[in-house]
Amino acid sequence: MRKGKFVPGDFRLKVKRSTAGLGLFALEEIPKGACIIEYVGRTISKAEEYTSNSKYLFEIHSRRTIDGTARTNTARYINHSCRPNAEPEIRKGRVFIMARRTIHSGEEIAYDYGKDYFNDHIKPYGCRCAKHKKM
Ligand SMILES: [Zn+2]
């Protein structure tokens, strides 16, 4: 039987140093369209969201935000890229990181954090994604 689209494949991944602190890297080829990993964490309230200092908040919709701070949430190590090879997909209130294209062994996995996050938290410090570090 075929595995569901939103079941993370058992890909070998590794957290290691990247151009922007730690990053998550593929240790084997990940096919386009594959589910790489789930972004997991505790659901927090709006009130908590406003007072939280967490850098790992993932807003699913206006009433549900996941706090992915826990170290067991390996997906928190995935960095932003302006030319991403992965993208988050929301399915039934959960967040799955999917491969936008074939990701080769040794490549860093990255997705676009979105315009708001980029403007507030990345742009002021200079983007260090693979596209921008060479500029
Ligand atoms: Zn960039």
Q: What is the compact description of this entry?
A:
The protein is 10% helix and 35% strand. It has two helices and ten strands; from the N terminus they run ββββαββββββα.
Walk me through this protein's architecture:
This protein has about 140 residues and is mostly beta strands. Helices cover about 10% and strands about 35% of the residues. It has helices spanning about 45-50, 115-120, and strands at about 15-20, 20-25, 35-40, 40-45, 55-60, 65, 80, 85-90, 95-100, 110. The strands form 3 sheets. The chain has a 4-stranded mixed β-sheet, with no helix packed on it. It has a 3-stranded antiparallel β-sheet with strand order 3-9-8, with no helix packed on it. A 3-stranded antiparallel β-sheet has the order 4-6-5. The mean pLDDT is about 90. Bound molecules: zinc ion. Zinc ion binds near residues 127 and 129.
Note poorly predicted spans: none
SSE succession? EEEEHEEEEEEH
Hetero compounds:
zinc ion
Number of helical regions: 2
Q: Quickly give the structural class.
A: mainly beta
Shape: globular
The average pLDDT score comes to: 92
For the secondary structure, the number of strands is 10
Helix content range of the residues, please? 10-25%
Quote the beta fraction: 25-35%
Distance between the amino and carboxyl termini:
47 Å
Strand order of the largest sheet: 1-2-10-7
Q: Any idea what the radius of gyration is?
A: 15 Å
Relevant terms:
globular, mainly beta, binds zinc ion, 2 helices, 10% helix, 135 residues, single chain
SSE topology:
Elements: E1 13-18, E2 21-26, E3 35-39, E4 42-44, H1 46-51, E5 57-61, E6 64-67, E7 79-80, E8 86-91, E9 94-99, E10 108-111, H2 115-122
Parallel strand pairs: 7-10
Antiparallel strand pairs: 1-2, 2-10, 3-9, 4-6, 5-6, 8-9
The structure holds zinc ion (ZN).
Residues 82, 127, 129, 131-132 line the site of zinc ion (ZN).
